[in-house]
Amino acid sequence: MLNYRQLHYFWVVAKTGSIVRACEQLNLTPQTISGQISLLEQTYNVELFRRVGRQLELTEAGRQALPYAEQMFQLGGELELMLRAQPNEQQILFRVGVADVVPKSIVYRLIAPTMELSEPLRITCREDKLERLLADLAIQRLDLVISDSPMPSHLDIKGYSQKLGECGISFFATAELAAQYGQDFPRSLHGAPLLIPGAETVVRSRLQRWFAEQQIQPQIVGEFDDSALMQAFGQSGSGIFIGPSVIAEEVKRQYGVELIGQTDAVSESFYAISVERKVKHPGIVAITEGARRELFTGL
Length: 299
Description:
Keywords: Activator, DNA-binding, Transcription, Transcription regulation. By secondary structure, this protein is an alpha/beta fold. It is 43% helix and 25% strand. The mean pLDDT is 89.
């Protein structure tokens, strides 16, 4: 059976880069750490480190073992934090993964209803690429994934998608750019400096198709996977940027920009993906019901 203490010593040495630094972190002697790692190597008849000069380098076996150790001790750390953080009145843990292409203002508006529940929730949010989030959902490290697309059909992962809502897009700009390009929308976008979402977003292809149909060719000056970064560039006057129409007033207020036009011909959709077909978690119920009742009232 795997000796987790020995594996932990291997992991710390690999992360810190030397036995000396591992000793400082673990408050152990070099003999203890090197001896335990040697026992681990002997148990599985592999060499995990090789000495190159005065430095230690991972062997191929060590490089293959490190990601497994990383995941194991990351999970262990999360478990320890969860257990230590439990108050006397038991909170319900709600772990939410957010696809990095979903606008942060939308995420906040979707999750906000969970803060008003009578049942105490402890919410953890993590942003990442959709496929990595879905992998964590499959092994129950997440309760919910919020995305701009439903569960991809090519992934062999059990999951169910609920459409939270859909809305058109709005175009925003500083007062200076709005004065220059705000008239005769959408023709005014022809040749205008434009900041657009990255290639991985669903709305990107819809936007490009709409431009082609309208025979509009803006000047693309920036592409962003992170909507908050795109909005920051837009706030600085770098170009016109887009956002979901459902939060248009919030974007104007937060970034001090003006609305120069909007269209329903290009839409953004948002989904809640979970492993349960019939949702029971109070946090997921609050998000789905709140989205349809307060945010996307047209559904």
